[in-house]
Amino acid sequence: MSVTLRDRTLPMPVLLAPLAGITDLPFRDLVSRFGAGLVVSEMIASQEMVQGKWAVREKAELGLGAAGTSVQLAGRDPYWMGEAARMVAANGAAVIDINMGCPAKKVVGGYSGSALMRDPDHALRLIEAVVAASPVPVTLKTRLGWDDRLLNAPQIARRAEEAGIAMIVIHGRTRCQFYRGHADWAAIRAVKEAVSVPVITNGDITDSGSAREALRLSGADGVMIGRGAQGRPWQLARIGAALGYCAPPETPEGNTLVDMISEHYEAMLRFYGAGLGVRVARKHLGWYMDDAGTPAELRRAVLTEGDPARVLGQLASAIGTERQAA
Q: Reaction catalysed by this chain (predicted)?
């Protein structure tokens, strides 16, 4: 099974989801190093991007992984969406993704994200503006609908394809569900049957077993992994290997794992600066330690330490290599 976006075929149909505050450049680079079909940036506010707000442009940084990176744009105005699309494509983005699925109140309150599902005509104007402005493939990420009474993803997907969208990603929940309950992978099949472009299933896919079941129920062409990659940047490649798309990755263990986490930590310090980087890195360190079973007291010590050198000095013990050696 392969996924082709216009003239671009993805290395494998296992993609990294856009996660606010998580899929920054250091994390995307790390996931790409293990292997991924495509990695997607954090959601970028289109107007703020064009107007030059530093914190927003920082989210769209591409680094050396531009060839495998999609930049996700959000907004409610066709002009700003089109201008932002031109900008990120000129900066080297391989793909542009339109956010029509974010359920957050501050996004929906601004008539962006999943709020667009309540006004498909306006959503199509945004899609048309981005497609017209972009020299690279444009994709759409959305949900099943606004709520159980408005499950209009198949209709929106059909119109989006007609407007030039190259791939559609469906999170198997409505906006009003947020992240409650379980993603309804079977409901995504109606979207797959409505369009001829690739459809990717998303939501609650964390390992090879859930990936296989999501593909079986949805009939989709691939999977998108979000929270399953937190603390396990190799997870996309591991799932891809289990599904037969790539060779198994070399999953780091022991000192190799400590070295990888240390490199990730230092990359975040360089990217954000030491002051902010220490704080941003804490969630990633927490996920690594959750996966390693770090004792609560030691976990707390690492996450409250403000000196980067001391954090790095504690990692071997926190991740377990020193405890195992003892």
A: a 5,6-dihydrouridine in tRNA + NAD(+) = a uridine in tRNA + NADH + H(+); a 5,6-dihydrouridine in tRNA + NADP(+) = a uridine in tRNA + NADPH + H(+)
pLDDT, tens digit, 9 for 90 and up, residues 24-46: 999 999 999 999 999 999 999 99
Catalytic residues: 102
Residue 222 annotated in ligand binding: no
CB 288 within 8 A of CB 317: no
CA distance 25 to 264: 10
Is the predicted pLDDT of residue 326 greater than 50, yes or no?
Answer: no
The single-letter code of the amino acid at 186 is: A
Ligand-binding site membership of 226 (annotated): yes
Q: What does pTM read for this prediction?
A: 0.95
Is 105 annotated as a binding-site member? Answer: no
Rg (CA), the chain: 20
Mean pLDDT along residues 15-23: 96
Distance CA 42, CA 20 (A): 5
Its CATH class, for the domain covering 4-242, is alpha beta
Sketch the domain layout of the chain as residue ranges: 4-242, 254-325
